[in-house]
Amino acid sequence: MRGENKAMIEIKKDIYWVGIRDWSLRHFHGQELSTHRGSSYNSYLIKDEKTVLVDTVWNPFSKEFVDRLDADVGLANIDMIVVNHAEPDHGGSLGYLIDRLPSKDIPIYCTKNGAAIIKNHFHREDMNLQIVKTGDSINIGKYDLVFVEMQMIHWPDSMLTYVKGAATVLSNDAFGQHLAGISLFNDEIDTCELFEEAIKYYANILTPFSALIKKKIEQIKGMNLPIDVIAPSHGAIWRVNPMQIIDKYYEWAQDYNEGHAVIIYDTMYNATRTMAQAIARGLEKQGIRYKIFDLAITDFSDLITEIFKARAVLAGSCTINGTVLRPTAGLLEEIRAHRFKGKLGAGFGSYGWSGEAPKKISASLEEAGLITPLAPLGFKYSLTEDDLKQCEEFGENFAKEMKQGKELIS
Ligand code: FEO
Question: Whole-model pTM?
Fold first, then answer.
């Protein structure tokens, strides 16, 4: 088994981590998202007058998870379950857990959307689903559980549970990272590693919902809740300066960029690569920093993070069968789906006869909401000295647009 987990770990008085660290995970959401540092499925147990389990773990770990709960807590001692989010990485063990509990009638607190998803996942009628909404609370002894709906952060059912009296936010996907770390706590993990995974998580999973996230953070801040600990359902628990990740999310949710360009090329015989390098020289002449990526050999999820951090995306592909190369087609669809805001874009590429790729790239970027100030640039076969000069000029002109174009950015 790849979990290799310790027993329960206290994260705040009376609140324990009872999750799974998945050291071997290298892709998540099927093969969609790379997870170079593994992940964790953080389930929590609150021991008050009532004993409450908040979230479960991904179903490949159901038996290990429930066996450990039984050994450490005793399944008969669990009084209620909270499902902050029913995606299988958190709700996947719910059915197995219910089957193992002595009382099948245990209350399961979730949102209305959560109840619908649980029913659609498990197709059973014997779960005692109790629907809660923002502001609802349950007294469990010393503490109250206060629920806040977090719709689309990450699914329609998502919510967070605030443990009032312990100043602890059990935030589920929000503020998490795919990281099986050396420690569970943010102050004991390398800061670069932690934030590299946190921004990758945001860029790849949450970017389309940025407008909702901004509003939600304003709502949460407006509630003036004391917060000592933010405990997400993946990766590190923020127990030192927990507000730093909320502040980061607020920054990332507002058309975030770090001012530089990314040049992404897809090439068959290096002509489009040569164009990319010449365009880069043009950017450099105008003082614009850039990174260059060979699309065919670059991890897609890492590339989405790089695009998230960039102010501009210059994408190039040669033309094949009247269109772009396959990786470029995937990239353009990803850019469209992520609904990036406030970025400039451009298309370029070499071709043999019909030369559709640069135009298709430029049109796709524009359709995705990027501003494309320059006409797409294409050249036939290998490049002449004059062609290369034009590529450099293209880079320079694009750089000028980047420098003067703040007002163009919506
Ligand atoms: Fe970690 Fe949306 O599940």
Answer: 0.96
Q: Is 234 a catalytic residue?
A: yes
| Residue where a domain terminates, one of 252, 269, 298 | 252
Q: Quick one: pLDDT at residue 77? A: 98
Round the average pLDDT of the chain to a whole number and report it.
96
Q: Which of 191, 217, 252 marks a domain boundary?
A: 252
Cβ of residue 155 lying under 6 Å from some atom of ligand 1: yes
Q: Interior CA angle at 134 toward 131 and 140, to 5°?
A: 70
Any domain includes 405: no
Atom of ligand 1 nearest to the CA of 41: 1
Residue owning the nearest CA to atom 2 of ligand 1: 154
130, exposed or middle or buried, with CB in 10 Å at 0-12, 13-18, 19+? middle
- CA-nearest residue for atom 1, ligand 1, is 173
Q: Let me know if 123 is a catalytic residue.
A: no
Asked whether residue 178 carries a pLDDT value surpassing 90, the answer given is yes
Q: Return the pLDDT at 4.
A: 54
> In which domain, by residue range, is 188 found?
9-252
Distance CA 133, CA 174 (A): 17
392 catalytically annotated: no
